[in-house]
């Protein structure tokens, strides 16, 4: 059986303690915020190991591809070069992101990992364009390929790529660049499989153009991933609501807390993939137990939605009207039934 749901109407949790909802007692509002996962020291170590493994094999794959005449192997090597550059960018961003916040950069340097993603995307698209250009030129020439060394190199490359996937897997959820590096290592593994299959097929007498077809397939796999990463970084830079954090859903959940009439002017965004933030105005029945209500709300947002950085502005209906928040530039986002006199349930 799972753990019973938390009753946010019954208790107020403050800095890890639990206070019963009795007479309003003065409490210090402080919602413990977990350190963002992207700042964990293990992420740079994982990226460094992945970079070392990838770079160690790039030269071997390039030389073997050139000597044997295998465009598929050269394409896979080119993709690994892009992976190495991406891992280097990710490592630099992850290292800098660990620097503490200061008076100028109050959120710290967490967003650096997002800012380097466009550079990574350009590298991906550049190598994909080169592979497509070379592949189209070779489709009809029936060039010879020495398949023996290609098969051996492909097998070794597959083992290395799978090892990199294993190293990065535990860090991809919280770090956008580690996620990009994981996707690339996985794509390299598939590319190595394609190289092996095409080389074996040519050894058995298949059409020599299959080598160029595999190279095109590798390029076709690169482009959609580059676009996906660019879209992810754009969503964060545009401060879009993260997946699963719909403002209307958050406002509805807030009304479960005793003393809350409604939630409006809700803003939810991400500083980095594992660093969601929320700000909102909270309309209260009265201000007698504001500390309890805010603590319960912060606990709800943290426990149910994973939002650790919460900024709440408590207000009564009179204050709401005085602030004229409904006249703010983003007031069009307010629900159609929003009013200054909320209906009680």
Describe what you observe in this structure.
With 345 residues, the protein is mostly helical. It folds into 2 domains: 37-237, Cation efflux protein transmembrane domain (Alpha-lytic protease prodomain-like); 241-333, Alpha-Beta Plaits (2-Layer Sandwich), CATH 3.30.70.1350. The chain is 54% helix and 10% strand. The protein has 10 helices and 5 strands, in the order E-E-H-H-H-H-H-H-H-H-E-E-H-E-H. The chain has helices at 42-68, 71-96, 112-115, 117-138, 147-168, 176-203, 210-237, 247-254, 290-305, 317-323; strands spanning 11-14, 17-20, 260-270, 276-284, 309-315. The strands form 2 sheets. Strands 3-4-5 form a 3-stranded mixed beta sheet. Strands 1-2 form a two-stranded antiparallel ribbon. Helix 1 runs antiparallel to helix 2 and helix 6 packs antiparallel against helix 7. It is elongated and about 85 Å long. 42% of the residues are buried.
Structural class: mainly alpha
Superfamily at the CATH H level of the largest domain? Cation efflux protein transmembrane domain
Distance between the termini: 32 Å
Q: What general form does the structure show?
A: elongated
For this structure, the CATH topology of the largest domain is Alpha-lytic protease prodomain-like
Identify the strand order in the major beta sheet. 3-4-5
Tell me what portion of residues adopts beta-strand conformation.
5-15%
Q: What key phrases describe this protein's structure?
A:
two-stranded antiparallel ribbon, Alpha-lytic protease prodomain-like, 10 helices, disordered N terminus, elongated, disordered C terminus, Alpha-Beta Plaits, mainly alpha, 2 domains, 345 residues, 54% helix
């Amino acid at each position: 059986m799972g753990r019973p749901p938390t009753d946010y109407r019954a208790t107020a949790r403050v800095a890890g303690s639990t206070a019963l909802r009795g007479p309003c007692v003065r409490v210090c509002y402080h919602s413990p915020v977990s350190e963002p996962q992207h700042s964990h020291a293990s992420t740079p170590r994982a990226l460094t190991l992945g970079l070392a493994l990838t770079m160690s094999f790039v030269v071997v794959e390039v030389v073997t591809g050139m000597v044997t005449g295998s465009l598929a192997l050269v394409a896979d090597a080119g993709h690994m070069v892009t992976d190495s550059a991406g891992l280097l960018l990710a490592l630099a961003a992850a290292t800098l992101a660990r620097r503490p916040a200061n008076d100028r950069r109050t959120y710290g340097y967490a967003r650096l990992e997002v800012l380097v993603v466009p550079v990574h995307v350009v590298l991906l698209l550049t190598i994909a364009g080169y592979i497509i250009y070379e592949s189209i030129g070779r489709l009809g020439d029936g060039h010879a390929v020495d398949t023996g060394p290609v098969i051996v190199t492909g097998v070794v490359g597959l083992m290395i790529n799978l090892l990199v996937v294993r190293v990065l897997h535990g860090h991809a959820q919280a770090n956008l660049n580690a996620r990009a590096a994981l996707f690339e290592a996985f794509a390299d593994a598939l590319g190595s499989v394609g190289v092996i299959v095409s080389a074996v097929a040519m050894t058995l007498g298949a059409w020599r153009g299959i080598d160029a077809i595999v190279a095109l397939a590798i390029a076709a796999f690169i482009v959609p991933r580059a676009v996906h990463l660019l879209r992810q970084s754009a969503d964060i830079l545009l401060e879009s609501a993260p997946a699963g954090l719909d403002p209307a859903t958050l406002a509805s959940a807030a009304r479960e807390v005793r003393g809350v009439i409604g939630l409006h002017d809700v803003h939810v965004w991400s500083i980095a993939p594992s660093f969601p933030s929320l700000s909102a105005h909270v309309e209260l029945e009265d201000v007698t137990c504001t500390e309890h209500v805010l603590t319960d709300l912060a606990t709800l947002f943290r426990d149910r939605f994973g939002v650790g950085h919460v900024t709440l502005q408590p207000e009564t209906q009179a204050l709401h009207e005085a602030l004229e928040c409904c006249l703010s530039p983003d007031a069009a986002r307010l629900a159609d039934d929003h009013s200054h006199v909320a209906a009680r349930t």
